[in-house]
Amino acid sequence: MSNPYAGERRAGTVGLPLPGISVRLLDSEGNPVAPGETGEVYLQGPNVFAGYWRREDATRAAFREGYFATGDLAVCSPDGYYTLRGRKSDLIISSGFNIYPREIEEFLQEQPEVAEAAVVGVPDRLRGEVPVAYVVARAPFQPHELESRCRQKLASFKVPRAFIAVDKLPRTALGKIQKHLLPKWEGAG
């Protein structure tokens, strides 16, 4: 997918499928999702690899009807522009609600005292999982103030249960955040 050279380039989207590429957004049962709903991105085209080397089981698991499951979650606008919402592996399910960490992270990063944020799901005895935010501060912050702003803009189940200050977010050599290396939060029930 790519934003077009000619035509509208939309900030925040990954654009439209390139010529010869077919894209499907499917729910967890493999059913197509409606425009405006979030689903996993499945791709088919000459750019997609044929399978994993000597791992037939992994290849079977990664493909559905000839489409490769990317693990990315996205939403498609009615006119065909795709916007990424995060990774399927990052999805938090709390009391049956799907929470996409990227939405919370983007809101937190709009706050003046927040330089970076990473949101992860932590186990909770009653809800299954709850969101917790790890924050790299630009300036000193009060967790209760961030929580209050989140409550004003986000659904209650999306509000992080804790805001943990960290000096930096762990990253790969390519700059991708390694959420599994964040310190464990033990406050959930």
Question: Can you put this structure into words, describing what you see?
Answer:
With 189 residues, this protein is α+β, with helices and mostly antiparallel strands. The chain has helices at residues 56-62, 101-109, 143-153; strands at residues 22-26, 38-44, 63-64, 67-76, 82-87, 92-94, 97-99, 114-124, 128-137, 163-165. Strands 1, 2, 3, 4 and 5 form a five-stranded antiparallel beta sheet that branches. A three-stranded mixed beta sheet has the order 8-9-10. A hairpin with a 2-residue loop joins strand 6 (92-94) and strand 7. The chain is globular. The model has no long low-confidence stretch (mean pLDDT 92).
Question: Concise description?
Answer:
With 189 residues, the protein is an alpha+beta fold. It is built from 3 helices and 10 strands, in the order ββαβββββαββαβ.
Our estimate of the beta-strand percent is 25-35%
| Order of helix and strand elements from N to C terminus | EEHEEEEEHEEHE
Structural class: alpha+beta
Detail the poorly predicted runs: none
Q: Termini separation (Å)?
A: 42 Å
Tell me which oligomeric state these chains represent.
Answer: single chain
Mind summarizing the main beta sheet?
Answer: 5 strands, antiparallel
Number of strands: 10
Bin the helical content: 10-25%
Please tell me what the overall shape is.
Answer: globular
Q: Number of helix segments?
A: 3
